[in-house]
Design brief:
Layout: E1 2-8, H1 36-44, E2 58-61, H2 65-84, E3 92-95, H3 114-125, E4 137-138, H4 155-164, E5 170-175, H5 177-183, E6 197-201
Helix pairs in contact: 1-2, 2-3
Length: 203
């Protein structure tokens, strides 16, 4: 049995596009960043009462920018603990494309090369996260062809089987609206940004 906490990323620029008079299909929103509100939401996760009840030994993130940025803001302090003292580290960070959002026709759900994603996060969040934070993320689970390798229909199921095969038992997952609904088998109607959802993954 594993304890899993699912977290939807902070509010994205894509979510507020229409309010700003921009179509969600505008190419400028390709793998877009968090909105200012989204940055605040993600930052506040660091002090979230639910998350602080757990000692996570595995943090998983989608490789889309809004999820990875949320992960850095919410859990970057754990990555920094790794940086200070590997011997005391208990948290592994893994980026997994099986928990990307579906709907590839919408630009915000289209991935970008990792070097562009990392550069954007360091540029936008350099004032509040360490420049070494992202160095602690393991990207080796991504397909060699990423981002030109679309998520398959069995992505979430593959992710669940991947989790079951790992040794870690307390897991945080930062991903997306439809991914979370699928993982929960549509048991909930709404998935607010940055609201942790506690789950149990059975064997």
């Amino acid at each position: 049995m594993k304890k899993v906490v699912l977290i939807r990323h902070g509010e994205s620029l894509g979510q507020i596009a229409r309010k700003n008079g921009i179509s969600r299909r505008d190419p400028s929103l390709t793998d877009c960043f968090l909105s200012p509100k989204g940055i605040q939401q993600a930052t506040e996760l660091k002090g979230n009462a639910i998350l602080n009840r757990y000692q996570f030994d595995l943090i998983c993130s989608s490789p889309l920018t809004r999820a990875l940025a949320t992960c850095c803001l919410a859990f970057g302090h754990l990555a920094e603990e790794r940086n200070k003292d590997y011997a005391c580290s208990t948290t592994t960070f893994v980026v997994n494309s099986d928990i990307c959002e579906i709907g590839g026709r919408i630009p915000e759900n289209q991935g970008r090369p990792l070097n562009k994603v990392l550069r954007a996060i360091r540029k936008e969040l350099g004032w509040c996260i360490s420049q070494h934070c992202l160095d602690r993320f393991d990207f080796t689970s991504l397909p060699v062809s990423w981002p030109f390798h679309p998520k398959g229909r069995d992505g979430e199921e593959n992710f669940i089987q991947w989790l079951r095969g790992r040794d870690e038992t307390t897991i945080g997952v930062v991903c997306h609206y439809n991914t979370i609904r699928w993982l929960l088998q549509n048991a909930i109607d709404d998935v607010p940004n940055c609201h942790p959802i506690e789950c149990i993954l059975t064997d």
